[in-house]
Write a structure and sequence with these properties.
Shape: globular
Distance between the termini: 39 Å
Helix content: under 10%
Strand order of the largest sheet: 1-2-3-7-8-9-10-13-14-17-18-19-20-24-25-26
Mean pLDDT: 84
Low-confidence stretches: 1-37, 114-122, 519-531, 686-690
Number of helices: 4
Structural class: mainly beta
Strand content: over 45%
Radius of gyration: 30 Å
Length: 786
């Protein structure tokens, strides 16, 4: 269970945050200072994980490699009377192809479905297989006859629609005044379309021997619920009989959902010791027990069933088998132990910090893992710090890991009436002749990985820190310590990009203290804050007026659309949608709801008193629920379902120019460009199609075109009242994007009025009008018609 101090990570699998941790800066240790309570801070981090293409033995797959975007925002605040409160929001979006099983190369699990080399969305996971006398798979010759042995293995890939995980958490802490003791109570919730997790943690820390020792302890509990909608195309080819009691079949559509719950409890102890003013050591121990449904519902194991009654097709001295895919079966409990040690050494002559760490992990599934890590934090001057780091990880395979299985029995035995040919009985395979547990999930195999990278940090302006990092990693089966591991068919590389923004909130505390003492300057600043700032939903609403000043902002927006499908200004019924909504192809589904969540980072710099420069990257998470049309017969391939996408959106670059400034009135113009950094080729896994299709226009992450963004903003104030208005637009500068279309131009007009309730709180009402033009052209390849 990966966690940072005060937070619990959802334990389903290593999150992207764990993958990007090696690319984020490690905080240096000031000489003579223990690891005490963290300062009040607001931070924002972004990471992107990208895999290189996997080795598919010459098959040209149309599937994109795995890509994941991670966003995380944290805030920690000190409250009254030694209380503290922290919040956390995290969002992961995954897309691309991932291994669903491992199989002999001669099975052709990734073989193309068309002459142009495009792989189907549902992989080939069943078929015939021939063995020689040593049970080595045989390659078929040009005549389809068994030939030479080929023991090569390959991962069978399947593509999935983008999936978004969102996690929310909060921690309440209290520090006792009479003794160096801290207590904390935290919890949170993690949500995916097929997985939910609720977790909580109780922790404490005690410093003794004049602060030279620090003992930390925590206990946690997590409850997980899995509700996986099984691929309707793959269901006929995947044996889920071991989970008959856990599969729900929807009579209206025929869809099947696999459900299961699991629980996990954990304990953690850590002891820190300051050896001298420059050296700190820390050791930790952990234990966790998980129980319940621990399988991955999307991983299968291919089993070659050698039926003694069908060996007439076997090659001389060999065997003939029918291969079928069984959903993996893991133990229903897992005990996990961990230990780690860390040394932090301040190197005075170089004003640098060296960190060395080792971690050991073991569980009763047979996995032993070792992690070695080293980093060097080196200040460079002018506020810059460079932190290179290197990390090596190795693990052994689980006891029940097998690339594929061979079973000396029939998959099913069918008895027919010799006269009529009617089926008299069907006897399935005997599960007792298979291992009790089995999985070919590559994450349970033996392997090693080596990663190296560096982070560059810039500290300036009142504790504000900007981070940027890069890490490259090599995953190799034969790098498992002690030998073994998977073959080179499972080798791949990946890289991680990261960026972070952190700033402390001590300025707010200073304002509050000054306000309590009646400080006139603080009062002026607080009043100015609510009379000069537009509502949170208004972009480009404020200018800095002191040359050289910086401003950093973080805003979150949520929007939901539902209701009828419109044609022009009137509602369209299901018959009209089916007949006219999808050109020549009748529609079978219609949108039900659509939600958008957006996080924007504002970075502003006052070049002069009348000119501000701004950079506004954005990150979005989109979800659309669709329903079957009433005019269409139920179809398992076109039932109620949802699409998700998320990641980096378009990036805005602006210049704000002051037009008018007078007492109580301010007018400024904005000239901006939107760079097409958001993807416009997001796909949806619709497995009834021969390839992944572009998702809906509204589910793409950006416009895909360079756009011109003009605006004109007025701000006014009178006593405790504030008011303003803005006109803005979006003009597409290109006729089409890389996917063949261009969004329509947009015009917006908005106005607002606010009232200052206190020096730090105001209430605002706002009205908004939006006009948007139609989409020009269309996708230049297959897209989702639902």
């Amino acid at each position: 269970m990966a966690a940072t101090r005060g937070w619990i990570a959802a334990p389903r699998s290593p999150s992207l945050r764990a993958l990007t941790a090696a690319a984020l800066a490690l905080p240096g240790l000031a000489p003579g200072r223990a690891q005490g309570a963290e300062d009040d801070e607001v931070s924002f981090q972004y990471g992107r994980y990208t895999e290189d293409d996997r080795d598919l033995s010459g098959v040209d797959s149309a599937f994109d490699p795995i890509r994941a975007d991670n966003l995380m925002a944290e805030a920690r605040f000190s409250l009254i009377d030694r209380w503290s409160l922290a919040f956390m929001y995290e969002q992961d979006t995954w897309s691309g192809a991932t291994p669903v099983t491992t199989a002999p190369l001669v099975m052709g699990g990734n073989r193309p479905t068309s002459p142009d080399g495009v792989s189907g969305a549902t992989p080939f996971i069943e078929g015939d297989l021939f063995f020689d006398g040593r049970l080595h798979p045989l390659r078929l010759d040009e005549f389809g006859e068994p030939g030479s042995a080929d023991t090569s293995l390959v991962h069978t890939l399947a593509s999935a629609s983008p999936e978004t995980r969102q996690q929310f958490g909060a921690t309440l802490g209290y520090a006792f005044e009479e003794r160096p003791l801290e207590l904390s109570l935290g919890g949170g919730y993690s949500l995916e379309s097929d997985y939910e997790s609720a977790f909580g943690e109780l922790g404490g820390a005690w410093e003794f021997d004049q602060g030279r020792f620090r003992l930390e302890a925590s206990t946690s509990y997590t409850h997980n619920e899995t509700d996986a909608l099984l691929d309707p195309d793959a269901v006929p080819y995947i044996d889920t009989s071991a989970y008959d009691d856990d599969v729900e079949v929807f009579s209206s559509t025929g869809n099947r959902k696999l459900s299961g719950d699991s629980d996990e409890v954990g304990l953690r102890l850590a002891l820190s010791r300051i050896l001298n003013r420059n050296t700190l050591v820390k050791v930790g121990f952990g234990y966790a027990r998980a129980s319940g449904f621990l399988e991955n519902p999307y991983k299968v194991v291919e089993v070659a069933f050698i039926d003694p009654a069908q060996q007439g097709q076997a090659p001389p001295g060999g065997s003939y088998a029918q291969v079928h895919a069984l959903l993996e079966q893991r133990p229903n409990s897992r005990n996990q132990w961990s230990a780690d040690a860390r040394l932090v050494q301040y190197v005075s002559p170089l004003d640098a910090a060296l960190q060395l760490s080792y971690g050991f992990y073991a569980d009763d599934w047979g996995i032993d893992a070792h992690t070695f890590e080293a980093s060097w934090g080196q200040p460079l001057g002018w506020g810059f710090t460079l932190t290179p780091r290197i990390r090596f990880y190795s693990q052994s395979q689980a006891d029940f890991y097998e690339p594929y299985l061979i079973s000396q029995q029939a998959y099913r035995t069918i008895v027919t009436d010799p006269d009529s040919g009617d089926i008299l009985s069907i006897t399935p395979f005997d599960p007792s002749l298979l291992p009790s547990h089995f999985s070919s999930d590559a994450r349970l195999s033996g392997f090693g990985s080596l990663s190296s990278g560096a982070t560059l940090s810039l500290r300036f302006a009142r504790g504000i820190v900007l981070d940027g990092g890069f890490e490259y990693a090599w995953h190799r089966g034969d790098w498992e310590l002690g030998g073994g591991g998977e073959g080179d068919y499972a080798d791949f590389d990946y890289y991680v990009l990261s960026a972070g923004l952190r700033f402390d909130t001590s300025a707010l505390a200073a304002f509050a203290a000054a306000e309590a003492e009646g400080d006139a300057e603080a009062e002026h600043a607080m009043v100015h804050a609510h009379t000069d700032l537009a509502p949170a939903g208004v972009m480009l609403g404020h200018m800095l007026d002191t040359p050289g000043d910086w401003m950093f902002g973080l805003r979150y927006g949520y929007a939901r659309q539902d209701g009828d499908v419109l044609r022009g200004t009137r509602s369209a019924d299901d018959d009209e949608i089916a007949a006219r909504g999808c050109d020549d192809i009748p529609c079978v589904t219609a949108p039900k709801t659509m939600t958008m969540q957006m996080i924007m980072v504002d970075v502003s710099y006052a070049a002069t008193s009348w000119l501000n420069l701004m950079l506004m990257p954005s990150f979005v998470a989109l979800k659309m629920d669709v329903r079957p049309l009433d005019s269409e017969a139920p179809d398992p391939q076109h039932s109620s379902h949802d699409h998700e996408s998320g990641g980096v959106g378009d990036t805005g670059m602006f210049a704000l120019v002051e037009v008018l400034e007078a007492p109580g009135h301010e007018l400024h113009a904005g000239l901006g460009l939107s760079a097409p950094t958001g993807k416009v080729d997001e796909k949806t896994d619709r497995s009834h199609q021969q390839e992944d299709a572009y998702t809906h226009y509204g589910m793409q992450l950006g416009s895909g075109t360079w756009d011109f963004l003009p605006s004109l903003t007025y701000n006014g104030a009178w006593r405790r009242l504030s008011f303003g208005a803005q006109l803005s637009g979006t003009v597409r500068l290109e006729d089409e994007n890389d996917s063949g279309y261009a969004l329509g131009d947009v015009f917006q007009a908005t106005g607002w009025a606010g009232f200052a309730l206190t020096r730090w709180l105001s209430a605002t009402a706002r009205g908004l009008y939006t006009w948007q033009g139609h989409i020009r052209h269309q996708y230049d390849r297959r897209h989702d018609e639902s």
